[in-house]
Amino acid sequence: MLEFIRENRKERNIELNVFDFNVGAIKCYEKVGFSINPDKILIREVDGETWTALNMVLKLDEWKNKN
Q1: Sequence-ordered list of residues with C-beta below 8 angstroms from that of 36, at least 6 positions apart, any chain
Q2: Whole-model pTM?
Q3: CB of 64 closer than 8 Å to CB of 6
Q4: Angle CA(27)–CA(31)–CA(34) in degrees, nearest 5?
């Protein structure tokens, strides 16, 4: 999918958001090449609880050079 986006789209960065308690997903995204963007953190109230969503970014050109 990343290769398709790199070859067929103008975007050079891919971003996603993941809740901070979803450690397995964060590790999975990091293995692929995503890194946490500390400048974008989203706070959400869900059923009276505060949930923190981390923004993660993958720079396609850097990803391609590593793979």
Answers
A1: 26, 54, 55, 56
A2: 0.82
A3: yes
A4: 85
